[in-house]
Amino acid sequence: MTRLQGNNQNRTVLVIGTLIAALLIALAVYAVRGNSGDSGDTVTFDLADQPVLGQAGAPVTVVVFEDFKCPNCKRFEEEHLPQIRSQYLDTGKAKLVSMNFPFLAESARLPEDDSKFAAQAVECAFVQGGSEAYENLKQIIFRAQGSEGEVWASKSRLKDLAGNVEGLDQARFGTCLDEDETAAAVEADEAQARRAEATGTPAVYVNGTLVESYDAATVGRAIDAASSN
Fold first, then answer.
1. Pfam families of this UniProt entry (predicted)?
2. Which terminus of the chain, N or C, has less C-beta within 10 A?
3. Does residue 207 sit in helix, strand or coil?
């Protein structure tokens, strides 16, 4: 009887030891996963003096890098942004910061870098009229989008398009564009895109984390998840 009791005690000790070991392993795995998610996946952006859609104090920040020659950017703006805007931006749940990543004209080795011209144009509008002017000209340029393989966003064409933005001083806008006054702002955006390891456009980040797709449903889920954290 005494030996049998001793065996039961040994078994009890073994079971308890096994449970403790399993618990420690589980905690270690949880810690590793948590640290890996925090350290490598979140990017910090400098968002000072950037155009914003939505309320500045919204709890979730969506950053979108775009190239005006990018067909998928046009699709994002026309097919998905309206839903994101109505559900999240207009309701104060999130704000959207637009940034430039003009690379397509250079990649296509076009004779003129009209990706950058278009980016400089919206920045010139922003200098004069803030986020509203930026957004208005951005939508106009996307509606006028031509082929990726052709130069269509020439400075003269961009000046014509800017004529449709109410309140812009067209002479001032023309000088800004002709003299590349906003080139540094565009280059700063591009540098941030490359630091964030954006590999294309549109590149959408929610609270600094790259979203796997730019469609409204995926971006919405990312905003909801960020809101619950």
1. Thioredoxin_4
2. N
3. coil
Q: What distance lies between CA 60 and its chain's CA centroid?
A: 12
223 and 139 fall within a common domain: yes
Bigger pLDDT: 35 or 190? 190
Edge-to-edge strands, sheet with 203-206: 52-53, 94-100, 60-66, 203-206, 209-210
pLDDT in tens, 161-185: 999 999 999 999 999 999 999 999 9
Asked if residue 225 lies in contact with residue 62, where contact means CB atoms within 8 angstroms, the answer is: no
Overall number of domains in the chain: 2
How far apart, in whole angstroms, are the C-alpha atoms of residue 55 and residue 172? 29
pLDDT digits over 194-215, tens only? 999 999 999 999 999 999 999 9
CA–CA dist 206, 97 (Å, integer): 10
Domain of 92?
Answer: 52-228
Answer whether the bond into residue 102 is a cis peptide, omega within 30°.
no
Q: How many residues does the chain have?
A: 229
118 in Cβ contact with 68 (< 8 Å):
yes
3-state secondary structure of 41: coil
Query: Does residue 145 share a domain with residue 121?
Result: yes
Name the strand (E) or helix (H) holding 206. Answer: strand 203-206
- Cβ of 131: how many Cβ atoms within 10 Å? 17
Q: Does 100 lie in the same domain as 5?
A: no
Distance (Å, rounded) from C-alpha 188 to C-alpha 190?
5
CA distances from 173 to 87, 142, 157, 197 (A): 34, 19, 13, 32
Q: How far is CA 100 from the centre of its chain?
A: 10
Token pair recorded at residue 48: 């000072």
